[in-house]
Amino acid sequence: MYKILLRENLVPNIHLFKIEAPAVAKKAQPGQFVVVRIDERGERIPLTVADWDEASVSVVFMEVGTTTRRLATLRAGDAIADFVGPLGLPTHIEKFGTVCCVAGGVGVAPVVPIARALRSQGNKVISILGARSKSLLFWEEELRSVSDRLIVTTDDGSYGRKGVVTEPLKELLEGDEKIDRVIAIGPAIMMKFCAKTTEPFGVKTIVSLNPIMVDGTGMCGCCRVSVGGVTRFTCVDGPDFDGHQVDWDLLLARQRTYLDEEKRSLELWQHQCGERT
Amino acid sequence: MAQLNLNRVEMPKQTPEQRAKNYNEVALGYSWEQALEEAERCIQCPKHPCKAGCPVQVDIPEFILALREGRMEEAVKILKNKNSLPGICGRVCPQETQCEVVCTLAKKGGQIAIGRLERYVADWEREHMGALPATPAPPSGKKVAVVGSGPAGLTAAADLAKMGHGVTIFEALHVAGGVLMYGIPEFRLPKEIVQNEVNYVASLGVEIQLDAVVGKLMTIDELLSNGYDAVFLGTGAGLPMFLGCPGENLCGIYSANEFLTRVNLMKAYKFPEYDTPVRIGRRVAVIGGGNVAMDSARCALRLGAEKVYIIYRRSEAEMPARREEVENAKEEGIEFRLLTNPKQFLGDDKGNVVAMECYEMELGEPDESGRRRPIVKEGSEFTIEVDVVIVALGTTPNPLIAQTTPGLETTKRGTVVADEVTGKTKKDKVWAGGDIVTGAATVISAMGAGKRAAADIDKYLKGE
Ligand SMILES: Cc1cc2nc3c(=O)[nH]c(=O)nc-3n(C[C@H](O)[C@H](O)[C@H](O)COP(=O)(O)OP(=O)(O)OC[C@H]3O[C@@H](n4cnc5c(N)ncnc54)[C@H](O)[C@@H]3O)c2cc1C
Ligand SMILES: Cc1cc2nc3c(=O)[nH]c(=O)nc-3n(C[C@H](O)[C@H](O)[C@H](O)COP(=O)(O)OP(=O)(O)OC[C@H]3O[C@@H](n4cnc5c(N)ncnc54)[C@H](O)[C@@H]3O)c2cc1C
Ligand code: SF4
Ligand code: SF4
Ligand code: FES
Predict the structure, then answer these.
(1) Which residue's C-alpha comes closest to atom 2 of ligand 3?
(2) Can you tell me the distance from the alpha carbon of B384 to that of B386, in angstroms, rounded to the nearest whole number?
(3) B212 CB contacts (<8 Å, ≥6 apart)?
(4) Nearest bound ligand to the CA of residue B436
(5) Would you give the distance in Å from CA B351 to the centre of its chain?
(6) Domain range list for chain A
(7) Does residue A107 have its Cβ closer than 6 Å to ligand 1?
(8) How far, in Å, are B21, B54, B199, B315, B320 from residue B334 at the CA level?
(9) Cβ pair A44, B173 in contact under 8 A
(10) Rounded Cα–Cα distance for residues B452 and A263 (Å)
(11) How far apart are CA B195 and CA B85, in angstroms?
(12) Which residue out of B147, B191, B211, B253 would a mutagenesis test of the A interface target, given it has the greatest number of A Cβ atoms within 10 Å?
């Protein structure tokens, strides 16, 4: 069992768990993920490492379905059955020059360690942080502290710039400063449009793909994606890929494989805990 | 000599109608009377060719004799002396090509049902004795890391522990047992039996670390520099192969590994009580002709599919699956579409598979494997409507360990190079055995490799 040392409510539906896992912590690198299972009946789900120290690894997750909502009911002191990692390849970090990091929604959590590592390699980091609205925004200060410049957007204009992240991204690319690389992490649809935005400028754009997974070790092929016309397994060949080469429609379709089952599972759980929909 | 009795005692099974709707074991096992009747047919031939047919040389006539004389504890001991997993092998060994095919009575079609007797003895042990208390040798002070907890790893770990070495198993998944847990379905091998064996190994003092992906959490070199004196690799052949034809990534198309893992390991057949879903197809096509294909097809049927096809590019004679399982699948109503191979998969506007275009095939000259080569009949394309496809074309070793272990030599097929007898690899202090060395093979051969490697590791640790 893996103990939850600390739990932090970042915004109403996004939480941070600091989990006791010294062996994983020792090996974790920016861009890698862990596979989590709550208990005997639970599903295995992947979550990206957001932070780590000697003895623990922190993950940040958004409540979307049964597993993440069940996770959200746990408290510090509780424990989960499985915490496997660190999986996947670390984000490729070297001195590129100026790197633009785009974080959408819960994606800010994995972006922070990446930006920090990029900075430590002497890159200039310009970050764009987007959320639907001010109430869903978190880790603004964390991201600012590892960036040379930070631009915040909200869809509804309740904070920072009104609009979506691709707008300031496009302006940066059109501006005087040369952008050497873009790293975009967030919902698939956001990463798709970031890649579409940078493509005409020919700026290499790395995205962190989030297909459905089971084992996370290359054994099942559930996480297969098509990159540059070649089938790759996200859990071992990724999760980072060249966003200009990704078949986004395939990723989006495969993410929806179990929509009906996810609904049934959520209904059962809500019924069991007497929650109203 | 008494008259030869060539009538094999059949084992009772659930009827096809019953079993197609549940996950309980299909074959129910002999009663005492049935076991006795079968055991009495054995003529105890002095040359006992059966023994040599078994990859681990189980003392077959001896255990059968003990059984029919009612010396059950001794029968157990004789069996376990060579085979530490008899309850598993008795159920899943391809006996028809190993011990039974060379039985003296086989020439007349009455070979002794060795596997069924082995299962009877193992089940008797479980019900009457519990696990035998082990008497480990005095601690040697040496430590061995066993990577992977399939039959190869479990056997090596058990033997090494009995020899007095400190053993830790590192397993990537959240349960131990390897393919026995995530691949072979409950109705063919109850998971309780596998867990019994795992518990037995743990009772010998073996520490089992689950959720430990070697190559990620730690490398082989790190294990060796952190106090382990030797490493045994039993990580199997877990990387699924795909066809590489158009449309293969549509939703509803699974590798057999994914499908079976969802169903067996994650218990998707109990969804939503268990939270991992699997698509329940109306019309399911399973591509392949091995045990894995049969297991996938029969799982799909039990989940509630209306129609399940086996799509195989050669004819039935070339099918690598066990005869018994092909017969079981047919009885349950699985439809065999032989000499058929997919050309491409067709999807709807949401990216779900809806049909499969296939070629008819014919058989040409024999290929390297000795089987007749399937050739496409040009212009023979036809379409089958399907909503779930399971690709069961075989597996190769996962490259994770090879990539992170300098000095470990591998073949072009990705298997690890190791001595056939001792399992010693080209890397110092590292042994390997089972599917990681042979490619996908059998439980008993993996077990045998684990046993031989344990003996060689013991020799090395004792400085012999
Ligand atoms: C490499 C990787 C890293 C990720 N990192 C994070 C993270 O740091 N924080 C975070 O909030 N989310 C992350 N995700 C997404 C997260 O895994 C899903 O939100 C979670 O699995 C949803 O599970 P659920 O049961 O709550 O929802 P469900 O109702 O089961 O599903 C909601 C959606 O989540 C996706 N999903 C469902 N099951 C899985 C699964 N087993 N594997 C992957 N996706 C699934 C599906 O596309 C589905 O539409 C990551 C995904 C991947 C692949
Ligand atoms: C569906 C199916 C049906 C089969 N039916 C039969 C049958 O009827 N009869 C028969 O004799 N054989 C059958 N086989 C074959 C048989 O199961 C295998 O040959 C046998 O299990 C191989 O044993 P192994 O110990 O080498 O590896 P496996 O059983 O594959 O075990 C390997 C273990 O190592 C773990 N592992 C892998 N990589 C790592 C890592 N990096 N770190 C830590 N752990 C790791 C895996 O998670 C796994 O638990 C079948 C196989 C399948 C898939
Ligand atoms: S282990 Fe397998 S091959 Fe050997 S005797 Fe038993 S059933 Fe036959
Ligand atoms: S060959 Fe057949 S009959 Fe002879 S000892 Fe072996 S099992 Fe008995
Ligand atoms: S999640 Fe199974 S292969 Fe990637």
Answers:
(1) B93
(2) 6
(3) A23, B170, B171, B172, B218
(4) 2
(5) 34
(6) 2-87
(7) no
(8) 13, 31, 36, 16, 17
(9) no
(10) 51
(11) 11
(12) B211
- Which residues from B are below 8 Å from A43, CB to CB? 266, 275-276
DSSP state of B265: I
The type of residue at A167 is: E
Predicted pLDDT at A277: 42
The verdict on domain A2-87 having CATH code 3.40.50.720 is no
- 8 A C-beta contact, residue A63 and residue A72: yes
Query: Are A23 and B217 in contact (CB < 8 Å)?
Result: yes
Strand partners, B336: B310
- Closest listed ligand to the CA of B211: 2
Cα–Cα nearest to A143, from A10, A24, A239, A47: A10
Name which residue sits closest to atom 1 of ligand 1, judged by CA. Answer: A210
For residue A91 and ligand 1, the question of a CB distance below 6 A is answered with no
Q: Tens-of-pLDDT digits for all 277 residues of chain A? A: 999 999 999 999 999 999 999 999 999 999 999 999 999 999 999 999 999 999 999 999 999 999 999 999 999 999 999 999 899 999 999 999 999 999 998 999 999 999 999 999 999 999 999 999 999 999 999 999 999 999 999 999 999 999 999 999 999 999 889 999 999 999 999 999 999 999 999 999 999 999 999 999 999 999 999 999 999 999 999 899 999 999 999 999 999 999 888 888 888 888 887 654 4
- A10 contacts A60 by C-beta, under 8 angstroms: yes
Is A262 strand, coil or helix? helix
Class of residue B38 by CB neighbours under 10 A (exposed 0-12, middle 13-18, buried 19+) = buried
- Which residue of B170, B242, B276 to mutate against A (max A Cβ within 10 Å)? B276
Q: Which of A113, A184, A192, A190 is nearest to A146 (CA)?
A: A113
Report in angstroms the alpha-carbon separations of B163 from A203, B160, B242. Answer: 61, 5, 42
Of B249, B266, B400, the CB nearest to A217: B400
In sequence order, the β-bridge partners of residue A9 are A15
Neighbours of B344 (CB within 10 A): 15
Residue A228 near residue A245 (C-beta atoms within 8 A): yes
Tokens of B186: 């409950």
Task: Give all strands (DSSP E) within B216-303, no chain letters.
Answer: 230-233, 239-240, 253-255, 283-287
B175 contacts on A by Cβ (under 8 Å): none
Of A218, A221, A253, the CB nearest to B350: A253
- Quick one: which H or E segment has residue A34? strand A33-37
Residue B172: list chain A partners with CB under 8 A. 84, 215, 217
ipTM above 0.90 for this complex: yes
Contact A82 B242 (CB under 8 A): no
Q: How far apart are CA B415 and CA B421, in angstroms?
A: 16
| Closest in A253, A264, A268 to B351, CB measured | A253
- At B456, the amino acid letter reads D
B contacts of A41 (beta carbons < 8 Å): 267, 273-275
Give the Å distances, CA to CA, from A154 to A135, A161, A259, B280. 10, 6, 28, 41
Average pLDDT, integer, range B258-276: 93
A61 lines ligand 1 (CB under 6 A): yes
pLDDT at B384 over 60: yes
pLDDT in tens, B30-52: 999 999 999 999 999 999 999 99
Q: Identify the nearest ligand to the CA of B119 by its number.
A: 3
- Rounded to the nearest angstrom, the distance between the alpha carbon of B167 and the centre of ligand 3 is 27
Q: How many angstroms separate the CA atoms of B57 and B89, rounded? A: 13
Backbone angles phi, psi at A236, to 5 degrees: -110, -30
- Helical spans, DSSP H, in A121-233: 140-145, 166-174, 188-198
Structure tokens, B33: 């009377």
Rounded to the nearest 5 degrees, what angle is found at the Cα of A33, between the Cα atoms of B215 and A204?
100
